[in-house]
Amino acid sequence: MFRLQALDFRDNSVNLIHASSEAKIVENTLRKELLIALESARTRFAIATALEKKLTLPERWQYYLDTAEQMCHSIRRLRKAEDLAPPPKEWVSALEKLRGMPAHPQAHQFCRIIREIAAELE
Question: Which residue has the higher pLDDT, 53 or 24?
Fold first, then answer.
């Protein structure tokens, strides 16, 4: 009787280890996809702001710079998140928003979306 319980415990622990390793793989894949999407959005945001630089007021330009800094901070935190507890729900939501962005949004649209995403990742 004790032997069967010991075997069941071993089987369950092996299954738990396997499940946790699969979760880690999914987490790493999700993190990589989100990082790629954020870096792509950062580049697109820089291009959009550069195109509008001559038409942008100094206050709005500073707002764009603050948004770019906030985005860089979120990217750095996400890169360091390997040791922290994963918040995949927020990652999935942020990735969906990044994928749902228009192809060529204006800088203020980018700014609004990026600030929403950065707030979720905080």
Answer: 53
